[in-house]
Amino acid sequence: MVHRLLDRLGIVVPLVQAPMAGSQDERLAIAVAAAGGLGSLPCAMLSPEAIALQVRRFRAGGSWPLNLNFFCHEPPAIDAERERAWRDRLRPYYEELGLDPEEPRAAAARSPFDSALCALVEELRPEVVSFHFGVPAPDLLARVRATGACVVSTATTVAEARHLEAAGCDAIVAQGVEAGGHRGMFLVTEVDTQVGTFALVPQIVDAVRVPVLAAGGIADARGVAAALALGASGVQVGTAFLRTPEATPSAVHRAALASARDDATRLTTIFSGRPARGLENRVMRELGPRPSGTPPFPRAASALAALRAEAEARGSGDFSPLWAGQAASLARETSAAEVVRSLFP
């Protein structure tokens, strides 16, 4: 299966760089691709123009394959009462930082995959298109497949993996609960039932016929070896790249990663409304990592945006989504190429 994955993705080592919205651009994708892995661009927070620009810059760097990643969530109906209650809960923090909680805030920019983005994929023709939170509608997925792209999506359970295979995915990312950033869950909502990577991978491998990529808690060659031993065809790695010069986390995020411990992360809904793993900070400690009443994804992010911006300007990550996986303490301050070499010595 490893050779099948390498041939299908057009890469040298069985590594996909996890798309990390807000913490990378084409520079990280180029560095990983040049080292033999699959570079990825996270597109959910980018305009079509920004996506096209980053793809052009990536193509100018070399002739490597490229993965474009998109979200497949359903935009929620606006619940003004719930969002006001959420702002009221954050009001003491606004007052502490001298901000007006009633000032209008722009809605969080996390766009689901739609016909316009599909047309962009048809124009840009990436070698791989990956999805998070399921897959798009059948007609859109058919259009993506018609471009010749390899289609990949994330599963957090065996049932999700079977669903993705039946929908036509060419490979599946088995995302264990250790993984940083947003859970790719789409058939389930209860995070307490989520499975660890090294329990999830062999069960998904046994359940589907397509190649499986292990994700979550993999930050060195030991994790890669374990994943391959359990039947994975490759790995998807994100947190291990966050301390590289090619990544673009905020200064407070980078500093928090440098001092991360093994017990430093939590699954939280505070920053977006969906469960995501990040380094614990003040707002997570004081409100609890998954408080009740949080607006649905992605609308919870709007009320935090001003707090985050003001706190970061003061050098604080108290209100920032410091996304990281459970193996964050294994990440090293080194180049992306060296991270790839360390994973596949």
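^ that was protein a. below is b, sequence first then the tokens
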Amino acid sequence: MLRRVNIENYRGFQSYRMEGLTTVNLLVGRNNSGKTALLEAVHFLASDGDPAVLLAAASRREEVASGGREERLLPDVSHFFHGHDIAPGSRFTLASDQDVPPVTVEAVPLGDLDSDAELFEDARAVSSAFALKIQGGRHGARAEPAVLLSEEGALLVDPRRLPWRYPGKERRNGPPAAFIAPDSIGPVSLGTMWNHVLRGKQEGKVREAMRILEPDLEDIVLQAGEPMYRSYAGGSGVLVSFRGHQRRVPLGSTGDGMRRLLALSVSLIHARNGYLMIDEIDTGLHYSIMAKMWELVVRTARQSNIQVFATTHSADCVRGLGVLCKGSPDLREDVSVHKIERELDSNVRFSGAEVLDAVEQEIEIR
């Protein structure tokens, strides 16, 4: 488990550290304080510097630059560097004090590479300026080639290749690390995680979790998509049934809260013995179920050896965590709240007991 994370020159943080991390960590702070950036940093570090994590983060933020003969949009990695500025010699580093080795991402001149960089055919119309090289992690020096960048910082990848297949041939070994965005998880990732649920015979746990919101939920199934839609829908759709109703209905018909609980419950099963990042954890959920949602997350994280990092803007979400700490004293040591302020060089930490005190005394800690 990560106890501390040090960040240098990543996004809006020239130098920052998060300390006093616990099993479940809730990040709070004003808009644009860097909460999501810290989730991304932890995800990249915990994923052993997997470049697919960078591609996914750029995609979620719509960070793209034009390139190629058809002026297609390509991932723009310049925004991962402090000041949104990238040139040969630019680098950012993520590190921890535990068993997870540090990872450094550096923009290097083409002449400094030990091996040829990789340039895909679709990007040959773009003049490359330098290359992106990832070093560190459990793998040390990378076996795969560095990837060429345009002058603007566009990552010259072939958009036809699936992100998790690039640039390595296989997923990284090591503990799982999942990221849930505010719009939950995509159909392809959901299908992969659901297969993991089926293999472990964990469907009952998913149903139990979703009954937090809909007590009459009877069953949940994933259906195969029509052939022409599989590339868009991940080959699956989610149907749910309720007691007293004969027909299954699409999950999307039940509202954002059910989608969020499905993403949470499936991801918690998938992330066993690993890490789970949840951006805006309260999205789509009513304030009245916040304490139950936190109990699901914290108890599962403790039982399944998962370290959770989540963000929120909601006072109700923090209050729900305080309610959990009051009703379940055994879980207090597993949770902490971290206030993020870009003006400081580290987080302001509140233990589970301090969160409870703040909620009971109506003290604002966001």
